Amino acid sequence: xxxxxxxxxxxxLACGGTVAACGSSSDSGGGGGGGGGxxxxxxxxxxxxxxxxxxxxxxxxxxxxxxxxxTGAGNAIVDDFNxxxxxxxxxxxxxxxxxxxxxxxxQFIQRQQAKSDDCDVFSSDVIWTAEFASQKWLYxxxxxxxxxxxxxxxxxxxxxxxxxKYWGVPETxxxxxxxxxxxxxxxxxxxxxxxxxxxxxxxGIVYQGAPYEGLTCDFLELAFAAGGQVLNADGTKSAxxxxxxxxxxxxxxxxxxxxxxxxxxxxxMEPETDQAWTSGKYAFMRNWTYAYAADNSSESKVKxxxxxxxxPSFQGGGKAGILGGHNSVISVYTKNPGLALKxxxxxxxxxxxxxxxxxxxxxxxxxxxxxEADVKKxxxxxxxxxxxxxxxKARPVSPVYPQISxxxxxxxxxxxxxxxxxxxxxxxxxxxxxxxLSTF
Length: 440
Ligand code: GLC
Prior knowledge:
Elements: H1 2-14, H2 19-29, E1 60-66, H3 73-85, E2 90-96, H4 101-113, E3 121-125, H5 129-134, H6 142-145, H7 154-158, E4 161-162, E5 165-166, E6 169-174, E7 176-181, H8 192-202, E8 205-206, H9 213-226, H10 243-257, H11 270-277, E9 284-288, H12 291-294, E10 306-309, E11 324-330, H13 337-347, H14 350-360, H15 373-378, H16 382-391, H17 401-416, H18 422-437
Parallel strand pairs: 1-2, 1-3, 8-9
Antiparallel strand pairs: 3-11, 4-5, 6-11, 7-9, 7-10
Helix pairs in contact: 9-10, 9-17, 17-18
This protein binds alpha-D-glucopyranose.
């Protein structure tokens, strides 16, 4: 078991870390089985969906669970589904979990361990596919996905692909940007070093620095750009203790010490970051694409006064982004898999995908959405967003990814709050990542 899983992590990393590269290799591998980074992983005995069951499922109500509906898209999907299907006897309800990705995972795990059908469909973060599939908590949706694999942008599709099977239907993809307040700066700097330098004199930068999954993303964007890694090439050991990772963390920690970022960022998740940003006090914000629409409400003090730019490069290194996003996964404990699939299919439909991008600035998973004229008008950076998705790097693919991430964000947060030095934090995370890897 231990060796087999080590090999699968290695295989995932061997496809270059870029999900796009994994996606295309799996496509050329053909047959929906087997190709790509995870071909060594096997999940046997899973329940397999009947793709045509969504056409005429038993009447009923589907319970959809997701994180806090900060954008309104969660209520919109349920409302739209009910508008379209209630007359046929099909309904959906929304259960909101907390804003923190870690807490959403914990909530879903509790229910699955109790074999509960509280969440027929769960909006699963792209990083949980390996873990949830290995636990046999998800329906294998390969027969459904294989009907139209070419419909999806390869990067988000690859995030539901594990062990040669597809365990979800992509809902939204995700990438982060540098937001800049046009009253304070006229353009976004081209390096992280310059972002921090300008932030110091022009109003500061806010980002997600609380100890949770978001901080892993925020840190890895700088670390990968600096040339750092999480695991070694064969995925068997940590490669976290490197001068590149120390450099990235030093820039972030010095940024707080020197006043480029407020100390409070060490407690911010996405909602707190938006709250700070919309006060109008700050020059820069690192946040995901959803914030473009969400932070432009009538109460926002930056309404109409900000623009977005692709993430900058790291001096002496290159550029890097982290691939985010969510997928509809179907619980094996649902009593109505056909209706659950109908809901997931509706989420991924061209009409709802367009609404997601146009109205909520969330990254659609259908490529054509990005070139529609009204979308380009509402979301001027739509072409850059599509490009960012295909260039973004995946976080390590592993059933113990949550433990790896915890080692990263806890220690990174300790360095940001000044509890420990960047060198010591990176070293400690390195040893904790090795311990996590040795548990399987
Ligand atoms: C966003 C991303 C998700 C990531 C999370 C971290 O929701 O889409 O992939 O894990 O932020 O906070």
